[in-house]
Amino acid sequence: MAQKQKRIELQPWQDPKAKPYIHLEGVSKEFRGTLAVDDVTLSIFQGEFFSLLGPSGCGKTTILRMLAGLEMPTTGKIYIDGVDVTHRPAYDRPVNMMFQSYALFPHMTVEQNVAFGLKQERIPKLEIQERVKQALKLVQMDKLGTRQPHQLSGGQRQRVALARSLVKRPKLLLLDEPLAALDKRLREQTQFELVSIQEEVGITFILVTHDQEEAMTMSSRLGIMDHGRMRQIGTPNEIYEYPHSEYVADFIGSINKFEGRVVEDETDHILVESEEAGCELYVSHSADVPVGSQVKVAIRPEKIMIAMTPPEQKRNATKGIVKDIGYLGDVSIYHVELKSGKIVLATQPNIVRLAERPVTWDDQVYLFWRAENSIVLTA
Q1: What pTM was estimated for this model as a whole?
Q2: CATH code of the domain covering residue 304
Q3: CATH number of the CATH domain containing 101
């Protein structure tokens, strides 16, 4: 008897029938003749932790401000939960925004800061007390409710600002670089706490950041922006492993790129001849690329293996001289110069002590990688 195949459950963004919770349709924003956001169409689903990632000036904060109602689009439409909010003012949207500065009132206690928005809405006193208590407990600040902001650490102030944003129970919470003011260790700890809180409350979060690690750690999906345009949208794994363009490949993490010419294009692989790499590059998955096309083949440093003796494979295998080694504790980064003069980065985990490593400066080494670990960049 044949076994039943296990059904793979689609994520909302993979299901054409799923209705987006947040939808931007052809949104552009112009400031004095300059396009800050250029024809962005984007769908975000309920309960997602979505990140907008890009360099300064790419338009990500402008999108956040348009969602909040602090800026109005020059063209396009914005929908939240199926409702057109394009021209609605900020106070008439089911949205809250947490700013980088936290903007706590210095003369109020923690509890008073969190309760402020509810008092403005004239919520009954007992309900305010209960909701403030719940919000502070959620961010583990329930024992510090009587303190004032100047008596708190940076991480504690960040939690109070988060509690104040959540207490109003918005449909959408916008986070504008909320962890930028924290030190590295606290920032890493807070990333996981934010994800746990978001999963617990079930509110859709949209984060703006220029920190790649932050976006990759926290997001269900992320959008990479450049000069006001959305270059790629996908899960952290998709963005990292399968970048659509050279820009995205360069922006996320480190990457090696070899220029070459396509000499074979089959259904299951592409073969690229590359003088720069010093070998034929065999890629087992790629979009169709015509024979004769000039392309770049990209490989992440951690996918490249290093050996002192030649590997059995001839394709995806080259050799060079170790010119530099960067020791980062958990990994070491080897800078290997090929015959063509190309410097290739190869990352290796430090499983053994550095002094015990066989590979060192000025050694001739062989670099090789699996066919499925490289990708052809055409854009």
Answers
A1: 0.88
A2: 2.40.50.140
A3: 3.40.50.300
